[in-house]
Design goal:
There is one protein chain. Helix content is about 35%, strand content about 40%. The chain is built from 3 helices and 4 strands. Keywords: Membrane, Transmembrane, Transmembrane helix.
Amino acid sequence: MNKITIKLISICIILTFPACKSNKTYIPVESSRTEYINTIQRDSVHLYDSVFIKEKNDTVFYSKYKFLYRNKFITDTIIKSDSIRVPYPVIQTVEINKLTWYQKACIWVIGIILGGLLFYLFFKYRKLFTK
């Protein structure tokens, strides 16, 4: 083979490859991710060192508070949401070999011929089946 023939064959083979493609179509799906950051700080501490005495009739109530209203919290919250779409494949139905009218007619004719042949053989050999 000469060099021109080899080059033409290789060019024809290379040109047939780009015709192949995937039948999958990707449709994006919504997905979300949420980050939650929470920070708690103590704001104030109130110190009480007090003693309370309360009399009611003949009973004396003695109460002592060391810490009254100890913590007051300040909460700082950050909510950050991020939505990322994730693609997934969608399968499409593609008809590759569709029958022509001639092929359909041949299938029907062969079916009718086989049905007639079975009908003929049944009536010819029905004596074997009725015993």
